[in-house]
Amino acid sequence: MVLLSLVLALALVGVHLLVERMPTLRMTPRKRWLSFAGGTSVAYVFVHVLPELGGHQAVFGKSAWSVLADTHVYVLALIGFCAYYGVERAVQRYGSMTRRLSHHQTRRRVEAAVFGVHIGAFALSYVLIGYLLVHQNVPGPMNLILFALAMGLHFVVIDIGLTEHHRDVYHRYGRWALSSAVLVGWALGMVGPLPPAMLAGLFAVLAGGIILNAIKEELPGHRESRFWAFAVGALMFAGILLAIPGL
């Protein structure tokens, strides 16, 4: 399992390093198969991530935080959703503001700050994704492979969105930072497991962020996504998740 988790971590790293070599992914309207990828990510959220939050909720019930057990993990998911939404709104607001700045050095400083916040927020979630490659809530190679597949397709869409926000600077620095974050998370996972209650909380925050990005990037009306490709991807991946016992 350790070797498999490393191989999958390297595969996720490869997503950001290879997407830039596929310029057709960035064309508008999106290609059918990219909408298909978005559908699989959304299916993973609804069929696997949200039910898994229920399992993590039980962890809180057995922890010192049991006084908050009734809804705590779902509140954390909401906090994650709101936090990532706040980051996206700040990036949009200050990104448009920089284009109106006439002073070159001031504009560069604001752009660098916006870029750092945006990449930093995603890097935190990527560290956790790398960690979860080592410590899955439901152990087993099939669960691990499906997790990596869903996250890899999710990474493709995120990569395109970040490129649209930051252009060349993302390819020079951002994609390397995100790729490194996955390996950092995997290495932390090899050091040892987190306390179950802490992992449950971090997973809930990550789930909120994934749900936001599923809505923001993978249902993009302004890019004329292909509905049928999206629906086929969602239904097919949901069927795979439901057909495998124990997931």
Summarize the structure.
The protein has helices at 2-19, 32-61, 72-98, 104-132, 141-166, 168-191, 196-216, 227-243. The chain is mostly helical.
Description:
The protein has 247 residues and is mainly alpha-helical. The protein is built from eight helices and no strands. The chain has helices spanning 2-19, 32-61, 72-98, 104-132, 141-166, 168-191, 196-216, 227-243. Helix 3 runs antiparallel to helix 4. It is globular and about 55 Å long. The mean pLDDT is 79.
Topology record:
Layout lengths: L1 H18 L12 H30 L10 H27 L5 H29 L8 H26 L1 H24 L4 H21 L10 H17 L4
Helix pairs in contact: 1-5, 1-6, 2-5, 2-7, 2-8, 3-4, 3-7, 4-6, 5-6
Defining key terms:
globular, 247 residues
Basic shape: globular
Distance between the termini: 17 Å
Count of strand segments: 0
Can you summarize the main beta sheet? none
Question: In which range does the helix fraction lie?
Answer: over 70%
Strand content: under 5%
The average pLDDT value, as a whole number, equals 79
The unreliable regions are none
**Number of helices, where a helix is a run of at least 4 consecutive DSSP H or I residues:** 8
Rg calc: 18 Å
Helix-strand sequence: HHHHHHHH
Estimated structural class: mainly alpha
